Amino acid sequence: MSFLTDAEKQMLSISRMIFHVVGKSLEEPILLEEIEPPQFTDFFLERVKSALKGNLFEFKLHSPTEATLRSIGENENNFSNSTKALARDFQRLHSGGNTSEGVFFVFELMAGQDNTIYALIKYDNEDVVRYILNQNGTEIVPQLERFRETFVRKAEAMQKIALVRLQDDQGGKVIVKDRSKPTHISDYFQSFLEVRRVNSPEKMSSKLVDAFKNTFKKHRTSLPIEIQRSGVSHIYAVLRQNGQQFDAENYEPLISAIFGAVDENSPIRNTLSKNLKDLGIAEESFEIIPESIQKPPRRRLETVEGTQVIYDEEHAPERIPHEDGVRTKIVIVTTEITTDDIDIGKGS
């Protein structure tokens, strides 16, 4: 199930916003006051929506971040102080290592009436030089200004984002997008949120196989002959390779590896997208775990004449080129023939 329905995504709006300055060079975060009313909401709403294709987590029991966000919902006057508490905690966990300076945003959003969503974002500052053109008579003289306090549209500037949807009594779902670890979440961000992943990479890997197999079955006849012949085997072969990832924003490499070159407007893409969505993995990125993709032991060989051979890898029939250079001989070596009868499997 998606974090937000399509209708909720359309209704999403920013109702409150605040940010605090964080970074490893600071002993304490620089705590600021709420921006009232929210400014540049279209700009920031685009940034928030870009995280909807993220990884699904849930709060652990007694998560401090969950408790702090609940305090905002219980009393609207808690917004400023509660976000300052979140910034201090984020700074404490964020201060080590190779972390960059930036700001810690907290947005309160509405996705329809009485449907509150929170967004927690670590946004890097951009060091830029701006020019202003001053016209003096017939000459245009540029003036340069350098400053850091800027927010840009570049995707990499938004380092971490968590979208939070609290449940009524306790717990809640959290969508996480973490640039430093796209297929999961960095250790300190996980410690800050106190969350666990809802869907394991093992289960998602298995579902990914089903999504591709179901797509292949529906569009088999429109695929190249070599893929039609052994498409399911090829799906297993590709997805069982070590080091594979599924990227919810770009799974084009997997499509090409499994189905070959697929036209941009091909219905194969729509079917695959629907299958991924139906299986609940369309918005997640994860490491594909080969060990969780169990290749079925049985294979089926079928000829144009209607002959079928069901076998496992250990007893694969031998294929020998025929003397005419066109046909193929299929040789089966057996210790005993157990059935040689009329096939009644199709109503005979």
UniProtKB/TrEMBL annotation:
Top-rank taxon, per record: Bacteria
Matching Pfam families: NA37 (PF04245)
Stated name of the protein: Nucleoid-associated protein
